[in-house]
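Final report, Chapter 2: Outcomes

The project's central promise was a pipeline that accepts a single protein chain and returns its three-dimensional structure in a standardized token representation, suitable for archiving and comparison. That pipeline is now operational. To close this chapter, we reproduce one record exactly as it appears in the project archive, with the input sequence first and the structure output second.
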Amino acid sequence: MKKVILFVCLLLASSTVFTQANLQGADLRQVHVDQISDDDIIYYYNRMQQSGVSFDQAAQVLQARGMPEDEINKLRARIQTLKESQRLNGTKQDQSATNNGIADSAGTLNGRSTFKTKIPTQEEEIDKRIFGSELFNTASLTFEPNLRIATPINYVIGPDDQLVINVYGLSEQNYTLTVNPEGNIIIPNVGPVFVGGLTIEQATAKIKAKLASTIYKAINTGATNVQVNLGNIKSIRVNIIGQAKRPGSYTLSSLSTVFNALFLCGGPGRLGSYRNIELVRNNKVYKTIDLYKVLVNGNTEDNVRLMDQDIIHIPFYKTRVILSGQVKRPGIFETVPQDNLSQVLNYAGGFTDSAYRSSVKITQITDKEKQIEDVESKDFDAYKPHGSDSIDVGKIINRFTNRVSIEGAVMRPGVFELTPGLTLKQLIQKADGLKEDAFLNRGLITRLQDNLMVEVVAFNVAAIIDGTEADIPLKREDKITISSIFDLKTKRTVEIRGEVRFPGVYDYKDSTSLKDLVFEAGGFTDAATGKRIEVARRVTNGDVNSASTEIAQITQVDAEKDLEYTNNNFYLKPFDVIIVHNNPGYFTQKTIKVEGEVMYPGEYVISANDEKLSSIVNRAGGFKNTADPSGASLRRINKIDSQTVIKSQNVSKLATTRRDTAISDSLTKEAVKPYDLIGIDLQEVMSHPGITNDLILEDGDIIFVPKKNQAVKVRGEVLFPTQFAFQEGLNMKDYIDKAGGFTSNAQKRKSFVLGANGNARRVRHFFFFKSYPEVLAGDDIFVPKKPEKPRLSTAEAIGITSAAVGVMSVVLALINNLK
């Protein structure tokens, strides 16, 4: 029972009551939210949300009905918990048929299947361009009646209304009475009083007279007073038919108005009228509602209160026009016979700032075809829009009736008003006169002729200003150009390169000296020399007929690096190129690394241009006991310059012409590898410093001295590739035999031994004799694989066989002829 009571209250709060049962006795003071299931709360909450009522609005009604505040807070917390678990979203789709208060004809509260009855609706997709459609597509706009207002004096009482009668003064009494179906209320000790069909004002007077004539005689003297208010509010049934978005039968509060009902049904559908909505009462059209009164002017005079069994009929629209272009609210507008073009433009908010207002273009649809009509602004009030008119408001063109402009060497260039009689001299004065750098011999007026052809009018600027030549009257859209003397000259520059902090191109200034330019370029770098600075000067009068024409004058200048100001300045000319050379005695430090088995491995700075391997090893403290000097290597950075790349490309092209892609790829990789491995015999170098193998070191070199390695590796095409302990006196063939010998794919002739220092040794052949290289501790033996020969296809094999047979036939024929 308590669940039913809460359900009734929530439905009352959403102004949607589905029964005419007597609900006045519902007592919410004993409701306990903890005893209500989650499913019930989800169901009731969705019903409330679908009617557009917030929980705060519902809470006010629940509190007025006697529900304790702590129980309301519990209900709020339960709803919030269900929202966070997203369970409240689960039933919304299932109840789409009962959204917005739609019920079946039975209207019962028992059995929820009643609310899932599928009601036919019009097409949901409404053209958003239709003016007024956004009013019914806004979820936050509810148009719900206010249930907490004072009872209107013109409210008509009917069955199920609850009247609250307060008697005060000499006598104190309070009555809460419900109007029965016959329209009577029963006052204890007084009897029945008929109030059905009366307004609150009329019912108050009748009740007051009845009480004064029976038990409250003091009412006649004024010692006792009577006040009658409306308590509970009855429900009414309203039918919405025609081109509504969701037509059907709706049960509403008796305080509901036409706008409440229209919003509940979703408003007019895609074909519904906004201008001729009919409120039918007692089988007669009681009121014709024009929603444009609200949308345009905020006039709510058509928003009348509904009565039980009212019918709202939304007919088809009769006339619509499409308004586009430069109006504030383009869209589709419905018109009535009394509307004119000015009113339609007013519906759209009027013209935009850039609209062409002189006329509008209207595309009309006749019985057979379309036609265009231009309506002038003076005829806007007289023109009556036709059905399917397409009204287009154009945009003003980018053209001025009184504009002239001036640019260039004037104080205030820009656009100016063309006043009557304005001349060229007056415009220059309007622009605050000429700049100091103005070119006075010639100016130009670019003028648009009557045939829209452009002409140029030249004038002498100085003569116009002095008045020695006749002034020139200006015309609309004239454009005056006065150049600067600098605009008519080539930009003069000088360039400085080499050992300065900021080399580059600089603007030339008169009387600029060499030291001035160096100073502007940030001064000399530490590597610069002030001696032999070259200045290359442009030749402007060279002999073109000479076989050896001078194209630049080269001057060598000595300057002090401190840039001290002296009278001995070398002055530059435009387009000079200055090159500051490097000091030949200036060196930057160069470092190398020594790694591996030396006493002090690490980085070392080269002390001289010709410092050699032996010197660096000695500086590193010599070898450790565990070092293997014979396996030492030198790794040098591969300096890839443009010449190296060109050589690599040439060799690669040569290999490609021979169709040897393997060689081409190998050469390409070799050219771009980051470093080269140089084979050295460091043991011999340290024994005899200064010999040929004692290489001079370069910046970035890395010397690596490995540990002693008493193993020999055998790799490649042998039966058992592995490592073997080094044995004195064994050669490459002996180690290959220990690895099981060659495989069938081994390329024996190209087998080689790679030493730890990077030197490679291969088998030597002399007639039928082979000389296998000696193997040292730490060496690697490599046996390469034979390259795979491409297999011939069947067609290729047949072709080769046919060619061979042909050649044999020719040979046999020649032999026979010789016999």
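Archive annotation: The CA atoms of residues 165 and 228 lie 5 Å apart.
This record, like all others produced under the grant, will remain available to the consortium after the project formally closes.
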